């Protein structure tokens, strides 16, 4: 499953870049995020609770930042295990472009799920994933732009 989109943020590219690399800001913006800890400059550990249809799962896993090109772009990828619910893995290519006083954050996300959660059907998984992504970017925009 792939999702693409962009978010206009009323902040400089450097400010947006710093926020994208700040575990506290990310933890506050990720829907259902229970913990997010920095292990190294390019690795994080996360625990996220997700409700998808009738299935509630708690995923724990690692997140890695690669293809770092500060303050323009990076790739964020990870894999989480949700016990009997299954697993989720995926990544996102994130690009930041300055346009006047704003920054355009463009993203291309790919995700895959397996196990019990995968039995819910691709439409429900896609709509829930899109809802989570939209909510994250709205939260992130509000946190960074102060709106």
Give structural notes.
The protein has 147 residues and is α+β, with helices and mostly antiparallel strands. The protein has one domain (2-145): Alpha-D-Glucose-1,6-Bisphosphate, Chain A, domain 4, CATH 3.30.530. 27% of the residues lie in helices and 50% in strands. It has helices at residues 13-20, 23-29, 122-145; strands at residues 2-9, 33-38, 43-52, 55-69, 73-81, 87-99, 102-114. Helix 2 (23-29) crosses helix 3 (122-145). The longest helix is centred in the last third of the chain and has 24 residues, at 122-145. The termini are far apart.
Helix-strand category = alpha+beta
Question: Mean pLDDT across all residues, rounded?
Answer: 91
User: Quick one: overall form?
Assistant: globular
Give the CATH architecture.
2-Layer Sandwich
Give the percentage of residues in beta strands.
Answer: over 45%
Query: What level of helicity do the residues show?
Result: 25-40%
Q: Count helical runs.
A: 3
Number of domains as seen in the coordinates: 1
What kind of sheet is the major sheet?
A: 7 strands, antiparallel
What is the tally of beta strands? 7
SSE run: EHHEEEEEEH
Kindly, what is the distance between the CA atoms of the first and last residues, rounded to a whole number of angstroms?
A: 31 Å
Poorly predicted regions:
none
Strand order of the biggest β-sheet: 1-7-6-5-4-3-2
| CATH superfamily membership | START domain
Q: From the 3D structure, determine the CATH topology.
A: Alpha-D-Glucose-1,6-Bisphosphate, Chain A, domain 4
CATH class: Alpha Beta
| Computed CA radius of gyration, to the nearest angstrom | 15 Å
């Amino acid at each position: 499953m792939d999702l693409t989109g962009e978010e206009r943020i009323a902040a400089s590219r450097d400010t947006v870049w710093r926020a994208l690399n700040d575990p506290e800001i990310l933890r506050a913006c990720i829907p259902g995020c229970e913990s997010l800890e920095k292990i190294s400059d390019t690795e994080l550990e996360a625990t996220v609770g997700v409700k998808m249809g009738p299935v509630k799962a708690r995923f724990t896993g690692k997140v890695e930042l690669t293809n770092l090109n500060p303050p323009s772009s990076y790739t964020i990828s990870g894999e989480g295990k949700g016990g009997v619910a299954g697993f989720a893995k995926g990544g996102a290519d994130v690009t930041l472009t300055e346009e006047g006083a704003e920054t355009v954050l463009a993203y291309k996300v790919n995700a895959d799920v397996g196990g019990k959660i995968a039995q819910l059907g691709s439409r429900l998984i896609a709509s829930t994933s899109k809802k989570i992504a939209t909510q994250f970017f709205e939260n992130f925009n509000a946190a960074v732009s102060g709106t």
